[in-house]
Design brief:
The complex is a heterodimer. By secondary structure, chain A is mostly helical. Chain A folds into two domains: about 100 residues, Orthogonal Bundle (Fumarate Reductase Iron-sulfur Protein, Chain B, domain 2); about 30 residues, no CATH class. Chain A is built from ten helices and no strands. In chain A, helix 2 crosses helix 8. By secondary structure, chain B is α/β, with parallel strands linked by helices. Chain B contains twelve helices and eight strands. A four-stranded parallel beta sheet of chain B has the order 2-1-3-4, sandwiched between helices. A four-stranded parallel beta sheet of chain B has the order 6-5-7-8, sandwiched between helices. In chain B, helix 1 packs parallel to helix 11. The two termini of chain B are about 30 Å apart. The chains are: A mainly alpha, B alpha/beta. Chains A and B meet through helix 2, helix 7, helix 8 and helix 10 of A and helix 8 and helix 9 of B. Bound molecules: iron/sulfur cluster (2 copies). The site of one iron/sulfur cluster has 15 residues of chain A, from helix 7 and helix 8.
Chain lengths: ~140, ~300
């Protein structure tokens, strides 16, 4: 995929929004990759957290949002407790999710969950999932 | 003074076994526990967005209810509730600006400053009773039972609400040892089971669960012990689905830590809520002759 980086992207409003919503500064990341090596959900992610941080440093939040990555994060905080730069990575990922969800686009249509699953699933999973995947 | 208790939604339905066994055990150990007179869903996850205050209202309301009921301490059983309430409590304690906005918004409620202490029951037992006293209270030691203690995420992360060091936790193993069981070390004890991912990204979720179950199987544990209803769903209820898609996953009975506690305290079978467990859990208990029915 061709990526265009310029002063415009780096200082662009989308990158600023991710900073604002997450309260985190991706620029302090020094690309060690410990986060990605700790993540239990990388199996189906196209890009991992280290690369997410790099793309955000370049102001390319839109490139990250186009991936499924943010919706595969389980907010387990494993990366967060291990990050040597003290970045709250799940908060950054939450901000990336919210950039889409706040436009009213659901990742998961609640009516698509089979009735049998709704019956057997713990409420905590339903509530948490709907919080993370719906607008 | 009675200790405040916040159950949360799941403990009143799918995880009735967690609540019933815990309340019976706490009573048998001499603790007086009182459910909050009024409570609401905590929201299950703590909002991670800096500009999202509205989702903090639910857990903070619960904390206000605890304070208004005169409780200095609030115990919880569900790991998700523990995490959400404990984080909301820290926010109200330390973030002056957000605290002010939240208190102003809930004008009709008492102002809250993070006064109540939120405790998970495992940590509560360690602090209030200690493992020696627990060992002395055990009537039916779980001798020869190899149990893999599974912490999951929300008791240990983030660090500021961890019930102990997230890097090298020992509390769960100490608890099991006090019950007379043999705790089994396994490398995935603090890994994530995929949590709520099971509702939207099933194959990725089952893969994360498989890694944990495979490690527990390899450690030749008889059973897996946990405290979170979402972990129990992913690793217990959905274990058959994991097994059908992934290799190296044996049949592993799952229990809430409080069910093992109730058994070790010699409490009758009806306090265990076993109908909510998978069949393999009941079979293991029968095989070990751990069950008693009250006269
Ligand atoms: S919080 Fe998300 S990104 Fe970080 S390790 Fe867990 S699943 Fe991966
Ligand atoms: S662990 Fe922290 S510093 Fe290292 S790559 Fe990940 S975000 Fe960057």
């Amino acid at each position: 995929m061709a990526i265009k980086v310029s002063v415009k992207t780096v200082r662009g409003p989308l990158a600023a929004k991710v900073k604002e919503v997450s309260g985190q500064d991706p620029n302090v990341c020094f690309q060690c990759g410990l986060c990605a090596g700790s993540c239990p959900m990388t199996g189906e992610m196209e890009i991992f957290t280290r690369k997410v941080m790099h793309l955000l440093q370049l102001g390319l939040a839109d490139v990250v949002i186009a991936q499924k990555m943010a919706y595969l994060c389980a907010s387990c905080h494993t990366c967060q407790v291990r990050c040597p730069r003290g970045i709250d990575i799940p908060a950054v990922v939450e901000a990336l999710r919210l950039l889409t969800l706040r436009h009213g686009e659901n990742y998961l249509a609640p009516e698509s969950i089979p009735a049998e699953r709704v019956r057997e699933m713990p409420q905590a999973a339903m509530v948490a999932g709907l919080r993370k995947f719906t607008a | 003074m009675k200790i405040g208790y916040y159950p949360g939604c799941t403990l009143k339905s799918r995880a009735k076994n967690l609540e019933d066994s815990a309340l019976a055990s706490l009573a048998a150990l001499g603790f007086e526990v009182e459910e909050l007179p009024r409570w609401n869903c905590c929201g299950a996850v703590f909002s991670l967005a800096n500009d999202d205050l509205i989702h903090h209202l639910a857990p903070v309301r619960d904390l206000i209810r605890a304070k208004d009921a005169g409780h200095e301490r609030l115990i919880t059983l569900c790991s998700m509730c523990y995490n959400t309430l404990a984080r909301a409590n820290l926010l109200m304690k330390h973030d002056e600006e957000k605290r002010k906005t939240l208190n102003l918004f809930m004008e009709e409620e008492s102002d809250y400053f993070g006064e109540v202490e939120v405790l998970h029951v495992l940590d509560f037992l360690r602090r209030e009773l200690g493992w020696e006293k627990l060992r002395a209270a055990v009537k039916r030691p779980l001798e020869g039972l190899r149990v893999a203690p599974y912490y999951g995420c929300t008791l240990l992360r983030p660090r500021e609400v961890a019930i102990e060091s997230p890097d090298l936790p020992v509390m769960f193993a100490d608890f099991l040892r006090a019950l007379g069981a043999t705790p089994v070390e396994f490398p995935e004890a603090t890994a994530c089971c995929s949590s709520y991912q099971i509702i939207a990204n099933e194959s990725a979720a089952l893969e994360a669960s498989a890694k944990i179950l495979r490690a527990a199987t390899a450690s030749s544990a008889d059973a897996l012990a946990m405290s979170c209803p979402v972990c129990e769903y992913n690793l217990g209820r959905r274990q058959g689905d994991v097994r059908s898609k992934h290799e190296g996953v044996g049949e592993l009975p799952t229990f809430y830590f409080t069910q093992l506690l109730a058994i070790a305290l010699g409490l009758p079978q009806e306090t265990l809520g076993l109908k909510w467990n998978e069949a393999s859990s009941l079979e293991l208990l029968k095989k070990k002759s751990y069950l008693t029915v009250s006269a």
